[in-house]
Amino acid sequence: MNQITRTYEQDCLSLLETRRRRDRPRTNPSVQTEKSPANVTTTVRGIPCLYGMSEWLQTLGHPEADISRLNIIHVTGTKGKGSTCEFTRSILHAHGSRTGFPSKIGLYTSPHIQCIRERIQINNNPVTENLFSKYFFEVWDTLMNTNIQNADTTQRPPRYLQFLALLAFHTFIRENVDAAIIEVHHGGEFDATNVIQNPVVTGITSLGLDHLDQLGPTVESIAWHKSGIFKPGAPAFSLPQEDSPSRVLHARAAEKNTSLTIVPLNPNLPTESSVLGIPVQQLNCSLALELARTSLKAKAPDHVIESADISTALRDISLIGRFEIIDDPDGQSQWFVDGAHNTLSLEKTAEWFSDITKSPAEQTNRILIFSHFSKDRDGLALLECLAESLSERDALPDHVIFTTYIERADKSQTEKMDKDILPTTLPDLSVLSLFAEKWKATVPRGTNSVSTKETIQEAIETARSIGAQQDGKAQVLITGCFLLVGGALNILRRS
């Protein structure tokens, strides 16, 4: 194929799709290392995602020193790692705009919500289609050449997430960023991003039970995997955790010869910032501030983050699909959009929705739009968690709508799906009926109607119709997965 004819949409995206994997490595509960703490599983089945990353980077011409020069802030956690990375980037960008350093900041994050280029950003913006394509084919043409496959280490080319991580490193090196914020995909110890050997600082957000097949079966195991990003001499920071996982984190910090600092809520954060109106985001911002300060201290010791930098960062930050509120132009519907997809996150989403909608000045109709299809999580259990959390806060919706990840009737079922696991079958629509049954069993009273819709567009139109038929404004919570949120945002922003 002539490189001149290759395009972002027809070639980059379609080629990348071929690298999706059908399954992730899973933990083997029966195997534990001799020195591993009780209740901690430290192995994975299959080939860990980290395997081959160093060799692939070498093949691309990037030795370890190139990665170290990126001045990396490495972040993991169960909940809030994406927001923490965004806060960190925004703080550093505000400081750099005022002082000149850092002038160029890279951010690698996942999942993307509307556009895959969201995963690789420079200075608050996704890389352009032209830049993405340029570096994509530099990586693709090098690593997909079977002649360079090394029989000892890289018997196969990189998979989807591995390729994207390699592309991010390659992009940031070529673009000469002053600092790079790298969000872990899953876990830490065996994650593809853990090829980083000399981060400037590492951070762990709130921990909970998620990705149990890969990281479980206990929260202690999850803490062990997450703390795999700790590196000798690189300060480590963590939000407060429960006692048991906290002990694992401290033990791992000692094992890896680094310091671990627990970051409490910073009482000096600007109180007027709307983005900090959610308590959990105050914690995430507190951690981000410490990560940014430590990064600057290591690379520019004379630089100090001032209160003006923080205020600017919070004013300019855009947390798409995270505790986001969208008002319809006609004022009839208000949309509360959050990509929560585990129990820890859904509890916070319920708290946020309840706090904002509990004392309306006018009659309102609460509506929930929910979807979750995943090999890694029990969607019914997540729905039950959400229902119970809303019920406890007296914020049960009057109407519930279950849908799929299909954006519109004329779109492919998987076109908008952002999964590193290749869907072997299209979502089974019968699951929607199971969602409806689970909701009715969990909260038998308090909801007027429960319906199912095959597309996100139908679900949104139904919510609007309900609001129009009744007095007052419709307040609609859309949650359960970033895949649902991405499709919903596409529709809501067009309208």
UniProtKB/TrEMBL annotation:
* Annotated pathway: Cofactor biosynthesis; tetrahydrofolylpolyglutamate biosynthesis
Q: At which positions is ATP bound? A: R322, D338
Q: Where in the cell is it found?
A: Cytoplasm; Mitochondrion inner membrane; Mitochondrion matrix
The free-text note explaining how the cofactor binds reads: A monovalent cation.
Q: Molecular function (GO) terms listed?
A: ATP binding; metal ion binding; tetrahydrofolylpolyglutamate synthase activity
Q: Cite the entry's keywords alphabetically.
A: ATP-binding, Cytoplasm, Ligase, Magnesium, Membrane, Metal-binding, Mitochondrion, Mitochondrion inner membrane, Nucleotide-binding, One-carbon metabolism
Q: Taxonomically, which superkingdom? A: Eukaryota
Residues holding Mg(2+): S110, E183, H211
Q: Which cofactor does it need?
A: a monovalent cation
Pfam families assigned: Mur_ligase_M (PF08245)
Could you say which EC number(s) this protein's record lists?
6.3.2.17
Catalysed transformations (reactions): (6S)-5,6,7,8-tetrahydrofolyl-(gamma-L-Glu)(n) + L-glutamate + ATP = (6S)-5,6,7,8-tetrahydrofolyl-(gamma-L-Glu)(n+1) + ADP + phosphate + H(+)
Instruction: List this protein's GO terms for biological process.
Output: one-carbon metabolic process
What GO cellular component entries does it have?
cytosol; mitochondrial inner membrane; mitochondrial matrix
* PANTHER family according to UniProt: FOLYLPOLYGLUTAMATE SYNTHASE, MITOCHONDRIAL (PTHR11136:SF5), FOLYLPOLYGLUTAMATE SYNTHASE-RELATED (PTHR11136)
Family that this chain belongs to = Belongs to the folylpolyglutamate synthase family.
Task: Tell me what this protein is called.
Answer: Folylpolyglutamate synthase
